[in-house]
# Entry
Amino acid sequence: MAGAKSKKQGTLSKLYLASYNLAQVFGWGYILYQIIQHYTTSSGSTLWDKTELPVIIFQDAAILEIVHAAIGLVPSSVAITVSQVFSRILIVNLVILATPYTYAAASPGLPMALIAWSITEIIRYSYYFINLVLGIVPYPLVWLRYTTFIVLYPLGVTGELLCLYAATNYASANPDSWSYVLPNKWNFTFSYLYFLIFAMLAYIPGFPPLYLHMFAQRRKILTPSATTKKTH
# Structure
C-alpha cells in the first residue's frame, strides 16, 4: 500500500511539474510574441502596456520554484533558486510597478530584460517539460539551455540594472515615496532610495558566482569527459 501511495504521489508530482513548466513555456512564449509584435507593428501602446499582465503572472509564478526546491520536489539548490528568482521578482514588483511609467518601465533596460528573460525561460521550461515527459532531451535543446545564457544572462542583468537606475532617479526626486521616515511609533526607518542602491550593489558579489556556476554546469553537461578527466 505504501509503495502504491508513493508511486501515485510521484505521478501526481510529475504531472504537476510538467503542467507548471508547459504553462511557463506558453506564458513566456506569449510575452516574446508581444515583444516582437511591439517592434514590428505600429501601435500606440507601450511595450509595458503589452507585456505587464503576463509578466506579472508568469514571473511571480516563479516563486513556486523556491517552494519546489525547498520541499524536495526538484533537486535544485534553494539558495541558487532564490538568487535567480528574487532579483526578477524585485525588478517587476518593487521597481517597475512601484515607479511611474516614465521611469523604470520607460527605461531601455526593460526591453533588454524582457527579451533575455523570455528567450531564457522558453528554452529552460521546454527543457524541463520534455525531460519530465520523455526522460531525455534532444541535444539541440540541451545545447541551447547551456549556451544561450552566455549572452542572455549579462543582457538580462544589464537590463535589470538599468531599470534599477531609472528607479533611483524617481526615488531621488521623490524621497518620501515608498519610504518610512522617523519619527514614527515603530522607531523604524526605511529609505526606498537606499534600498534600490543596495539592490544594485548586491549584483557585484551576486552576479559572478551565479554566472560561473552556469559555466561549470555547461562543462559538466556538454563536455562530461573533460570534467571526468579534471577530477582524476
